[in-house]
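B., you asked whether I could sanity-check this one before it goes into the benchmark set. Here's the sequence:
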Amino acid sequence: MKKIKPKKHKLLLRNLTLDDYDNLAVLMEHVYDNLGGAWKKDQYVSQITRFAQGQIVIEDNGVLVAAALSMVVDYYRFGDVHTYAQITGEGYLTNHDPDGDTLYGVDIFVHPKYRGLRLGRRLYDARKELCRNLNLRRFIAGGRIPGYAKYAENLTPVRYIEEVKSREIFDSVLSFQLANGFHVRKLLTNYLPIDKESHGFATLLEWVNLDYIDTLPTVGASKKNVVRLGVVQWQMRTLVSVEELLKHAEFFIDAVSGYHADFVLFPEYMSAPLMGLFNDKHPPDAIRALAGFSRDIRNGLLEMAMSYNINIIAGSLPEYSNHELYNVSWLLRRDGTFEAQYKIHVTNDEVTCWGVKGGDALKVFDTDCGKIAVLVCFDSEFPELARLAALQGAQIIFVPFWTDTKNAYLRVRYCSQARAIENECFVAITGSVGNLPHAENMDIQYAQAAIFSPSDFSFAHDAILAEATPNTEMTLIADVNLDLLKQVRTRGAAQNLAKRREDLYRLEWF
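And here's what the prediction gave me:
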């Protein structure tokens, strides 16, 4: 089996500063060696000074790897016929107008070594969010068509664009921009004469801000309050390699990220489809052999978290180290960082069949969408853990589980729903379905994924935001509004957290 080489990424999206020039210049020299290289420093200073909010960079462990530059213009001053130099003021952004109605894309570039991680899409998403926050009508950009050089003798630029739009031809820039929701308004001639690959042509691209309103009470970025959850109800099927397992997982990650979900949750023991590789071993030896795949699976999923711009709760994977076996859930953040939550309460079967040990720490994780916690299966049946997590600020609790029978499943479901009500938080649960022949202690499964809310007037009447069809492979996608948690905790009908009698009892972690 080919080993997946772990890469320790830590991605951070932020605004550029004046101090970033030297490092950004190095990045631009890598990307634009055939288009004049980096901006001059005085151009860069002007860009930051005039519109710092529009200059965005992604760094990996402190190294700049991708960037996007933009400005705001009164678009009708320029219209659809302009050159790059005209509208950008020769790169100095002298035409930036804080009172304008259009975000104009000045530049976007990604280090060649990072082009498999979809950082360009992340930068486009950030600029779309900026467009929304500033309440601008549209996002306009002039796009290169570098692939045109190969077809210039046989196709007009207009025909070439049509072929790319119909997916008969792939263009590394235009195909990407079309996939990110832009449409072509017009063909521009002599837009960037130095661009020999595009023969000086460019597409005038537009993304329309459907959230635009004529009057905006407050301008500026706001804290994310609506978080989109994706939940995978995973079908057990015999697989023969880590690569095949990761390919299967990527199908769901790709699908869920296509709906711009912030999290995707997989079930407990998500690597169980590989158990068939160890049919000849006794159960304790088989689970330890399975644990040998966990690092590669985790690293492969971490790459996908960054590539698909989504936080992954990697269900759980067995971990065997120093002659001790644990059941571990992984939070794989889209910035390339990761943390682990060890299952604290292990079941009788895990102990007697495999010798699994319980963890000794409960973590509340910081994410770009607020604080979360993970309770692995049986842990959800102990109300103390969820309460401790809620007291530390957890707003969403994820429960990956594995259950073989309906009554086992219902214990997880009813307890998880109770955790959402008593702690006034959201709880997402999911498990695996189907059968795994010849996998002792993992042979049958029963599950119905769901997302629960507090039970109050602001939420669904049955406190269930979404639920899957039982025992069917599928996904759930639902939005959770974190602002509603503030309301239910301060003005709700019950206010469970606020009404605790701390004069009589107290919960502590020793």
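One thing to flag: The two ends are 43 Å apart (CA to CA). Otherwise nothing jumped out at me.
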